User: What shape does this take?
Amino acid sequence: MMIDNEFKRAIIMDHYSKPHNKGSIDESYKSVHMASDSCIDDITVGMKFDNDIVKDVRFDGVGCTICISSTSIMSELIKGKSIDEALKLIDEYYKMIDEKPYDEDALEEANAFNTLSKQANRIKCGTIGIKAMNILLREEKYGK
Amino acid sequence: MLDVKKIRNDFPMIKELEKKKAIYFDSAATSFKPQCVIDRVNEYYTKETANIHRGDYDLSFSVSDEYEKARETVRKFINAESSAEIVFTNGASSSLNLVAYGYGQKFLKEGDIILSTEAEHASNILPWFKVAEVTGATIEYIPLNKDGSFDIENLKKVMSDKVKVITLAHVSNVLGYIMPIKEIAKIAHEYNAVVVCDGAQSIPHIKTDVRDLDIDFLCFSSHKVLGPSGVGVMYGKYELLDKMDPFMLGGGSNARFDICGNILLKNPPFKFEAGTPCVEGVLGFKAALEYLMDIGMENVEANDRMLHKYFMDEITKLDNVEVYNKQSETSIVTFNVKNIFAQDVACYLNSKGIYVRSGNHCAKILLNVIGVSETIRASLYLYNTKEEIDYLVEVLKGVTLQKCIEAAL
Assistant: This one.
């Protein structure tokens, strides 16, 4: 998937200004709160499962453009997928961030972060929401 | 007026950043070090390495002597009565914890009140949370004005005989307001309370006289005042130091001990300095304070205030920027670009070679007062210039969300 900077910027702008799946998370969701000391992103991600299907993903909180847009994009990607498929997508995302070969087609809009690895100080922003999703999926699959 | 060109020449980091066309506006986090400080540390390693207070041989004797001279330099710098009132620690956090543990935990009891403000850095409030937990004392906050500034009348309203400690920063690390410490100390002492002053942000910028201010404890770090990291000071009035407990016990702090567990501690300041200290750091710190005293702290203070005023005048002209501490007088300007998250702006500024800090600056309860949790903090010191401020203001004028995102790609 060839993607130029202008396109990447448009994707990020879109998900930052109108984030998908963002809003309050009630108790029917399993949730995890992420806050890091070194940056100011502070978000909570919640999921609902139906057997092994990720029935819904929501997130709430404050964060920078990279944090909000990456969480929004990934929430869209994994919603409706099986837990294993969702974990695979997250694995591909981490490979991209680690500059390893990865499945570009599978990541769709998340390719907007394909050069985030060059900005060491922003990697945390681009992974904090994804890390929360990873925790929730693993807890559901393997138990706490 | 300072000869800023000459000063900049004394700082290798400034020259390094000039090569990259980068500008440092984060001295409130840590300051750069002049060559004389670096040389002093290096000299200890290359020519003077020996432990202190083991004076059987010349080398140890002379380095011990230098170490004690550093104590005298600090005394002079803050105009303490005696160098015995200067305790070396490993930083302001260490010093503040030492006061809370050694004085607070020892003397406070249930029903006592610790007064502080919501603008405090974690280092000056969390140790007191612990004191409250252990002793049953409670923490109360002196109400701040809407812009986070301090009004002495608010202190008078909450002051009572139950207040045993007032702990606050002389200069807030987020908003840069200078607290009227002298007036605060006067009121505190009328009620027999002690004043603990976090001087981390004030010592670098304000000529401080502990006797004139009548502060009971003053804590600060070396690394924010041109010295090495890993060194700090806890100043305390001698009679308070004498009756409080050390945080650590060990070599160097006791005069003798026996098999029954009896310990005879040394007198202050030595009873607080168990273990081998950061000798090279203390020697470098001495060089840093001497460097500032050569320039004259009154000149440093005047220059920092002048630069800050210039910065404030220029940045408040921008329509797209909201400044939170317009009433501040020195060193710190705290702001946001309207409708853009602080971290995005800070990262954009980084892409333009401007180093600032974004976040809540370790003062996590201040957001209750100013109503915003994330801000950008630009902080100045004697090596900054008006031209650097002009450049920052120019870049801020043109910042957009698109540019911020692009900077991350």
Summary: Chain B has a mean pLDDT of 93. The longest helix of chain B spans residues 58-78. Chain B touches chain A through 18 residues (CB under 8 Å). The longest strand of chain B covers residues 163-169.
